[in-house]
Amino acid sequence: MARIIDTPLHEAGGSCDARAIHGAWGALDAAARRGLLYTPEVKAKTDHLYEKVKHVIPAIEWPAYAPLIAAINDMKRAKNAVVLAHNYMTSEIFHCVGDFRGDSLQLAREAAETEAAVIVQAGVHFMAETSKILAPEKTVLIPDLRAGCSLAASITGADVRLIKARYPDVPVVTYVNTSAEVKAESDVTCTSSNAAAVVEWAARTWNTDRVILIPDEYLARNVAAQTGVKIIAWHGRCEVHERFTAQDIAEMRAAHPGVVVLAHPECPPDVMAAADFAGSTAALQHYVEERRPAKVVLLTECSMSDNVAAASPSTDFVRPCNLCPHMKRISLEGIYDALRELKHEVTIPEDVRARARQAIQRMLDLPKEKPRAFKVGMPEAAVELV
Ligand code: 13P
Ligand code: SF4
Fold first, then answer.
1. What pTM was estimated for this model as a whole?
2. Ligand 1: which of 129, 264, 374 to mutate, most ligand atoms within 8 Å of CB?
3. What is the average per-residue pLDDT within 186-198?
């Protein structure tokens, strides 16, 4: 069984036990207030799900989560609904109520293809908007309207219009971690699974050596180090990944000899240079499942280690405890209420949706490939900051 070794890196990093935010007692109380109890019927319906999370949820806590899990799964069937669960969801959500699981690119593809009438986005608001853009005829729900993203909040549609006025012939590649309004002003979107490929495609298609890549400054710098394309960047940051430092990596290597360090490309360039492997959340998961390292640290959101550990029992995970406060707004009780009351429905004005769709569709139409790894140990590349 995989071991989870908590290593709080920063004093203000929050609790390592992501589930503690809602916690077993919170779930138990929320279930009771909704008239849901751990009955023999609930036990029979959920025992097989416990097998997937027993490495992170103590047996004594399972009766607190199981009533909400059973009720959500029953309601999904009754309402022809699916839950799209991002890799950063806590394990009781990810493994026990998620119908489709993955990184933001995988979830976007699922939203475009699902036949369900209702999509519940267990992720943040921009992901729910992406689902609505791709599946306008479906009811798309976000369990908590406060589940935002520091990158999405860093830029507006008006900002993009100003950038385009300054660089009229340069294509705009926009990270999916943005609002529908920002996507609508963009030529094509990308995710961390395909950012370098999309930037190279845009440079070829627009016959230029310069591409605007917004809004994540670090992603832009990391992509610039991978390609020969000159990058014009914005100053957005992910509030979770910007906290990792090269010093953290040095300390983890000293404390855990032989540990393999995997980084998400929203991390600063000096962190990418010091890591052993880098890529999207899906690329990090594939690395662990294919290479089966004895001990890893995932320099990304804390819950991801728990979720990958379920399928990688021979690997130990050093968990650096950086939580995304927005992802952690999503709870079992929030998903239950969203399904029961069909709230909070995501809506997008049709003209914005149609233009944003074009930018996303260009990305989805590119040849489907495995999440592209970022080369690590690269010298830092210069970018032009707008
Ligand atoms: P992925 O596309 O790698 O899932 O990343 C989304 C995200 O929000 C990372 O912080
Ligand atoms: Fe946004 Fe960072 Fe949270 Fe991802 S981890 S949703 S990029 S704030």
1. 0.95
2. 264
3. 96
